[in-house]
Write a structure and sequence with these properties.
The chain is an alpha/beta fold. The longest helix has 28 residues. It starts with a helix and ends in a 36-residue tail after the last helix.
Length: 566
């Protein structure tokens, strides 16, 4: 068998398998039992299914390659047949909900907006249009993401599954080509669809499946025009002005130009308010004299009692308050720009609401407004996101559809980014596929008493680019949060969210909470195992490292006293 044929076929099959979802039982040869396992390929260094070849095995390279390929063909067929997508009807045609009216749908996604960066929750920030969604619709008080990072969270929104299933676990690697987006189901149901803004999964700026209209930023995009411009339906077009305004202009043009009776779905994905925060000129300095008091935790021994070492060490890093972005950045001034940048987003939302009102579509259209992840401004001595702490994983979420939801509704149930896809599908009158981890929260918003989750799984995978935050798995209930770290010599965390909402007192060593910690640990691993998450993803290195520390900054952490012995 020629090496060129073997390598090309082997590579093609590996690409087919890469990212395949894995709620499937696969024989674990090493322990002789059937377990749900992660996406896997033949490892040519170890053998089929990852089984190490004994040193006594003396197969020629061609024979071994042939046997490996046979095993890989079988594995590929098995995974694709048993993946979550295997149950999806041909052509993406989902079952319809009897009597349901397909709604026009607008989903507005904001980057890095904190859960409390809403006018009705804030001491000085003014967001009248966001406030109106809460007043006239639904405020989802306990909304979260299952991974607090741009690309993984966005992929979960689009697919309805956890990051360990869609395999977009960082901001560098593209979404696997076989991935199914909710937009594909909408198109199959007769919807007109448009995506506008930040996609940000690898270098995929070209049109993706399920969208009739495609306007995409290059990577993170730029607040003001740069050399990259926008991808508009596969063509590069220069950016003309401030990006929040320009994306809104494109959205308004598309909405106004629509003809016919097809229902529509607009996905408006803003760059704002991603760092570096740059407000439009009209809002610069608006909050210069505001009472800027970001919650920067003091560097005192008391504040770090029973805290993980990585947390203290991150204080003096790219994502820490002592050396933020390896600079002398003023966190209060940074927070001022953050709030000013958000004002243009609220203005954008107002333009959309005005259009719907003028066209008499406001009462019948479902609008969902959401942040892709939270943002820390000094809590626990750190900035940015990624962690499982509340300011990182908690997001703002608002929803309005007067024909469905009572004005002023407040939902207290835990909802998440994985619930967006099934919720949008229900708004379209479609039954969500069984493979989705999330569930539609439309019935809850309507006031119906339906079963709902009492725990939420969180995951984040260590990035070489930003090595200060470890791999994290966590389980959040209404009352407690258990945080488990992987791959580092450190301690876990347990917090009583009712009595300690700031997550300051780690109960992981408290004798009275040992049984609870073990219970939450077991339930967390049960959820990971059930959804195929019992693996750690590995990708090639891409980009540099932000791994510096400042001399004279916060010193390295000592080991917790509980880990010392005489």
């Amino acid at each position: 068998m020629p090496d060129s044929f073997d390598d090309s076929l082997h590579g093609a099959l590996r690409r087919i398998l890469h990212g395949a979802f894995t709620k499937i039982p696969v024989l674990n040869w090493s322990v002789g039992r059937v377990t749900p396992c992660a996406p896997f390929f033949i490892n040519r260094n170890t053998g089929a299914h990852g089984v190490t070849r004994p040193t006594s095995m003396r197969l020629s390279s061609h024979v071994f390659k042939f046997l490996s390929l046979l095993g890989l063909v079988f594995t590929t067929a098995t995974v694709l047949a048993a993946s979550p997508y295997a149950g999806a009807p041909v052509g993406f045609a989902l079952s319809k909900i009897p009597g349901a009216k397909p709604r026009n749908i607008i989903f507005v996604l904001i980057d890095d907006q904190r859960y409390d960066a809403l006018g009705f929750m804030h001491p000085f920030l003014k967001t009248p249009n966001m406030d109106s969604l809460a007043k006239n619709g639904v405020f989802l008080k306990n909304a979260f993401v299952t991974t607090s990072l741009c690309s993984p969270s966005r992929a979960s929104i689009l697919t309805g599954v956890y990051a360990h299933e869609h395999r977009v676990v960082d901001n560098n690697n593209p979404i696997p080509p076989e991935t199914v987006f909710f937009s594909q189901y909408l198109k199959a149901a007769g919807y007109e669809t448009a995506f506008m803004g930040k996609w940000h999964m690898g270098s995929q700026e070209t049109p993706q499946p399920g969208w009739d209209r495609w306007i995409c930023l290059h990577g993170q995009g730029s607040y003001w025009p740069d050399k990259f411009g926008l991808d508009i339906d596969g063509k590069n077009v220069p950016q003309k002005g401030y990006i929040t305004d320009e994306l809104t202009d494109y959205a308004m043009d598309w909405l106004k130009a629509r003809k016919g009776d097809k229902p529509f779905m607009l996905y408006l994905s803003h760059k704002a308010v991603h760092a570096d925060f740059i407000p439009p000129d009209r809002y610069k300095g608006v909050y210069k004299n505001a009472p800027l008091n970001p919650p920067i935790m003091a560097d005192t021994p008391e504040n770090y009692v029973d805290k993980p070492m990585w947390l203290k060490n991150q204080r003096n890093s790219w994502h820490g308050v002592d050396f933020p972005y390896h600079s002398d950045l003023s966190i209060p001034e940074y927070y001022e720009r953050y709030c000013e940048t958000l004002l243009a987003v609220d203005e954008s939302l107002g333009r959309i609401l005005d259009f719907l009102r003028e066209r008499k579509l406001l009462d019948s259209t479902m609008i969902i407004y959401m942040g892709d992840n939270g943002f820390q401004f000094g809590e626990h001595g750190i900035i940015d996101k990624r962690t499982a702490y509340e300011p990182s994983m908690r997001v703002p979420m608002l929803m309005q559809c007067p024909e469905l939801f009572k004005a002023g509704t407040v939902m207290t149930q835990m909802v998440a980014n994985i619930d967006i896809a099934p919720t949008i599908l229900e708004a379209a009158g479609l039954k969500a596929p069984d493979y989705m981890d999330g569930k539609s929260f439309v019935p809850i918003a309507e006031g119906k008493n339906v079963p709902w989750r009492d725990k939420l799984l969180y995951e984040y995978y260590w990035e070489r680019n930003f090595p200060q935050t470890p791999t994290i798995h966590a389980l959040r209930t209404d009352d407690y949060k258990y945080i488990h770290y992987y791959g580092i010599w450190d301690i876990d965390e347990l917090y009583d969210l009712k009595n300690d909402p700031g997550e300051m007192k780690n109960l992981i060593f408290d004798p009275a909470h040992q049984a609870l910690a073990k219970k939450l640990n077991r339930e967390m691993f049960d959820m990971l195992e059930k959804t195929g998450g019992m693996y750690i993803p590995l990708e090639r290195d891409i980009g540099g490292q932000s791994n510096l520390r400042r001399k004279g900054g916060s010193p390295p952490a000592d080991f917790p006293p509980q880990l010392y012995r005489k």
